[in-house]
Amino acid sequence: MSRTVVVTVAFGLVAAIVTGFISAQEGPEAGTASGRPQDEVAIREASQALARAFEKGDPKAVAESWTAEGEYVDEGGEPVHGRAALEKAYAGFFAKRPELKAESTTQKIRFLGSDTAVEEGTFTVRAKDAPAESSRYSSLYVREGGRWRIALLKEWGDESTDRPSLEDLAWLIGTWESEGEDLKARVTYEWSETKAFIRSRFVLIPKGGESPAGAGNQVIGVDPAEDTIRAWTFDANGGFGEATWVWDDNRWAIDSSGTLPDGSRTTALNFLTPAGKDSFTWRSVRRTVDGEDEPDLGPIKVNRVREGK
Predict the structure, then answer these.
(1) Is the pTM of this model over 0.85?
(2) Distance of CA 24 to CAs 44, 49, 184, Å?
(3) Residues 131, 19: Cα–Cα separation, whole Å
(4) Most buried one in 19, 40, 73, 267, CB count within 10 A?
(5) pLDDT tens figures, 50-64
């Protein structure tokens, strides 16, 4: 997905920061025993200090965790060299700071000399209302004046973990509603028994009426052969369709096709854009019926009316 260089760099650095914080909490078992437990603890404390600075949104304090000429390298962007450049990158990131969560595993800490060490591991970062991103990292620490600082941090993609997950859509679990001029739509998302799928039920209710104007079911899951999130929809009147879900910058792009009860073929590109915990907008473009263009729909605001489990 496309991102500016500053955001790309800052996002990667955030992952390393939170990774260090979590590994610092894991205790001695998280790393490889080296015979230098005090130095290992000091490196973890340096990472924890970096995490606290990040949580405060303090770019200067974050940059202080690097050496004066320290460098960050990401396989998808330009290296950031020097404490001043790192501080600038963080300042730009904190100006639009997202909510982040991270899961990490520190695989080893290796000492290369009396004052140098390498920490290696994997981590997964999740921004609010966005899919997780997994990477591998290697941090070179040096000791300057008794303090461990980062001299070089490298980050690269981890294809073995960079796969779509239904957890990316877990925020949908619950009941949602939207209203138009003539209809109210209600949809409920819930997990299947094993959490291998998300099931939904939808109903269209005419304003002032009691009988539904339409209803149906949908099943969402990960296609293990294609590493893609797919959905299958079944209309109560006999229509059906399928779609693929792809995260596109700040929204889900849902490329769908289907068959109406009368046999007509349909296609559409739908966009679902999260707008906080309890709402999203939905828009449908490039709509066709039997090859004929149809008007775009939306954007339509959809609100959560009940939490799910």
Answers:
(1) no
(2) 5, 10, 50
(3) 18
(4) 19
(5) 777 777 778 898 899
